[in-house]
Structures are given as C-alpha cells and as structure tokens.
Amino acid sequence: MNMPVTEIKPEPRSLEEWTAMLRDRDMPIFSNTVRSVNNIIGDDKKGVMELASVILQDPNLTTQLLKLSNSIYYNASRQKMATVSRAIVLLGTEVLRELTLACSFLEAILSPTNQRRANEEIAQAIHAAVHAKALAIATHDRSPEEVFVAALLHNIGNISFWCFCGAKGDLIQALVKDGSSQQAAEKQVLGFTLADLGGSLSKAWNLGGLIEESIRKNQGAVNPHVGLVHLGYEVVEALREGPDTKQYGACLEKIAAVTKQPKQAVREALQKNTEAAAGIARHFGAHEASDLIRKEAGQPSEPETAEAAPMTDRKQLQFQILQDITSILSGRIDINLLLETVLEGIQRGIGMDRTLFALLTTDKLALREKVSLGWRKDSYTQKLVFNLAKIPPNLFFQALSNHDGCWLNPEQDAALFTAGDTKLVGKNPCFLMPVCAGDKPIGLIYCDRAYNHQALSEDDFRAFRHFVQQANIGLSLYRLQGREG
After folding, report:
1. Confidence of residue 10 (pLDDT cuts 50, 70, 90)
2. Who has the most CB within 10 Å: 158, 216, 281, 335?
C-alpha cells in the first residue's frame, strides 16, 4: 500500500525566491487586491461600482473597512456608513484606496503565530503612517492618503519577512544579539537586506508611485512627499527615545519648521496622533501593536474593554442599506451607485454567497455580467455570459419574463437547469428577478448560497424582491430625470 507523500516546499534562498513565496504562497489575497485596486484607480472609465465590487469579494475586508470608515479618525462627522458604496461616496476613492490597501495588507499578515518582532514592525508602520499623514495635512499636501499608504508600506519587506520568516528570523536575531548590526545579520543569513526585499516586493506587486519611491535607497533630489514619509518614521524613533533626548528635540525643531507651528502645538499633535495610531491598530485587530505604540511613546496601555460586537442582525442591516437607497432615490440618481447598493443589500443584507447583475446584450440573445459579488474567479475583469434559450426555456430565459421574481430549485425545476447554465452557476436553489426600465427588462439579478448551502426562506425571497424593486423604481425615476434634463 502506497502512503501519500506530503509535498515539502523548498525553503527560499534568493531575493527572487523570497519575493515569489511572499507574493504567491503567503500573501496571495493582498497580491490580488493590490492588482485589482490599482487597475481600477488608474482607469478613468472605472468608478464606484468596480471598486466596491473588488472590496466586497472579501467579507473580512468588507467588515474591517466599514469598521474603520465609521471610526472617528476617518469619519469625524459620524455619518453612519452601512455599505461600501456609501463609504466610497462619502470618503472618496483615494481614502478608500488607502483603507483597502491597509486592511488587505494587515489581513494578509496578522495571525496568532506573529512573534513580537513582527508586531513591533507592524506597530512602527501604523504609527509612522498616522504621523506622516498628519504632517501632510499640516503642510497642506494634496495627497495625505497617498502619504499614509506609502508610510504604512514603507517597511513592507521587514513586516512581510518577520511574519513568515521561520528559522531564518531566529538566526538573524541571534546574530544581532551577539553584536552584529541588523543589516549585516540580514545579509549574512539571507544574502540581502530586508530593505532590498521591500523594494523587490514593491515591484512584484506593482505598488509604484510614492510607495516605491520612498523605499529606494538613493533619493537624490528628495520628493517632498518622500520626505514626509521618512519624517513619520523619524517621529516614531524620537518618541521611542523620549522627550528629554537630543533626538526628540531635533525632530520637534524639524516639524515646527516644516509645519510653521509652535513647538507646544507640535508636542500636543504628536500625542494626539499617537493615540489615533493606537486606536487604528486596534481597529485593524493588531492589539499587540496597539499596546506597543503606546508603550514606545511613553503612554500607558489602553485598558482592555469589550469591543462592540459586529453587526450581524440582517434585518437591521437591510434597513440601513434601504435607507441608503432611499437617499440615492431622493436626489439626482447615480444609476451605477444605485445598482451597486442594491447588490450589496442582497449580498450582505440577506446573506448570499454570490450575487450578480447581468445586462441584456443588444441582440437580446444573452445576458452579460455587469457586476458580481462573491464569485470565485481568477480576475475581477473576467465576465460571465448567459445565453437565453427559448426552446426549451432555460433558467435565465424563464426568469427574464417573470416580473415578480423566481425562486427556483434544481430538484423541482430540473428542466430549467440546462447544461450550459449549470456549467456557469452550478445547481443551487436561487433567486432571480428582471431589472426593468418601464415594462421592458434590461437585465437580471441572480443570487444563491452556493458555498454554505444554507436554505433559502420566504423572508429571504421577500427581501430579495424588495431590493430589486428599488432598482426598478430607481431606473424609472432615472428615465424621468433624463427627459426633464
């Protein structure tokens, strides 16, 4: 009898192998998110719908992002944001890019196996990022969010390595303990420094821009944005040294000169930023990093308090999302925002695994995906196309002609689940309902629970129909506004 052989992955030896391992094996979710977000932000033809759909593919990322969006640091007005779509509209795409990259990065690295050194690196990054952003705002920089992300990911090589280093990390720390410098120890064990790894990861993830520029060793004529990133790290080092040291005094002088603020105001701002950084770390779930931020700045640890439980009541979430939809319908309608919010209401509010809105093609022979949530695809650019078969009628042809919506089951409605449909969506109980402009269907919304296989209910179907009806009301109002305009 042949015993199964467990594949032993070879330990990375070169800079290239370490980069590939972190990118593909240890942090693939972050890799995919960075690629998708950067593609959307860099394309003028893409907007809220595309960005929201990328975020909503990951329920954990969605939860963390909304939690931070509603924190006092990002949302001083305390306007409740129940949907990603509303968060993008209220906070702006640049802030959401900042939050998405930060949340997805920390989601990829935070785990119970993190050693103290990893938490120290995470604490330094979050702390420096908050100070750098505050400095950018104080100096009237146009891109404080870009400065925040660049500072957070400035030491990306260090953070990534210490989270997944294994025995190599122990060797480096042993050499440092015996008197070697940090860089010399890294070079001896790895053959390269962690700063080199950061630069390599930045290129592999195509982070580009200020992130990559701030990581480079030789700056030449320093970009003022890069200077703010580096100053954020200087602040953290100065706070670590203490308020009575020469380093702290020099840092205080530099910040006062850059911001044109009196030293006392700078001192107060540094304390306020440190408290904000500790709070943000805690929001990210980096509790040990939060305590380290306070400790290194000479502040007492925040007393442990029970965090508010995440909102799990679907009825409450449905109500809040419907309020957002009402707000959209009460003004000049952004049809893409409306449809995205409706889909988010179905996906999160009803608790679906997969939700999709598809538009009729011009020849009316197929439905082409416009936006989808929860579908496990290689790329967000991959679009599903559903052919409409009249004889015999298939799943989507049947649903398109039923304005009241369909609740279909592969056991009772087996004939509708044709081979072509099954290849694309499988055989799962599902809800379908046409999206109409007036009396004419222009597309269709589909949803199911293909992964957790939780039973659908009458309440779920009523909520689904109500959300789609809001989309239809919005389309009718949108057409009227177009005529009036």
Report:
1. low
2. 281
